[in-house]
Amino acid sequence: MNTIIRAILDRSSEPRLKAPAPPRDVLELALACAARAPDHALLRPWRYLVVEGAGLERLGELFEASAPEDATDAQREKLRKSPLRAPMMLVAIASPVSHPKVPAHEQAYSCAAATAYLELALQAEGYGAMWRTGAVAESAQVREGLGLSADESIVGFIYTGTVDTPKPAVPRPAVSEFVEDWPG
């Protein structure tokens, strides 16, 4: 089995991450891999924000500020602390380009594929990653605070760092459970 297939089959979301974060050369390599994602018309309809250090605390404040009015203190604190789950967070942003043949939703899929490549590359270089979304990804306040334009959307918050404690392997479905021949 080749190394690419092995990396894909071994991929897992790692929720327990610690310092160090990937160094800049590893991050740039992973982002270069992201740029190889399928991309109809070569629009490159994505961008990433790198958040580290004090930026994680500022992002937590932004998450907390986006809480609904009826949120409890505990819910607000959880939002504020959530970016601190890892030493680095990458914000994956679908940034569609007006194009007559490539609708915005296809461009968002391209961003998602790029982000999956990014995660695989980080793992191949010995780092863990966890892709999260949730209400904060849809929050107009968070989008505005991160500087997104009206047509951009957050595809995910990619927490990354060194795996603290590997989680147990997650059972994966057999191919026969999700593939069928058509017409049957």
Automatic annotation (TrEMBL):
EC number of the protein: 1.-.-.-
Enzyme class: oxidoreductase
UniProt xrefs under InterPro entries: NAD(P)H_nitroreductase, Nitroreductase, Nitroreductase-like, YdjA-like
Domain Nitroreductase, residue spans: 11-161
Cofactor(s) needed: FMN
Keyword field: Flavoprotein, FMN, NAD, NADP, Oxidoreductase
Similarity section: Belongs to the nitroreductase family.
Protein name: Putative NAD(P)H nitroreductase
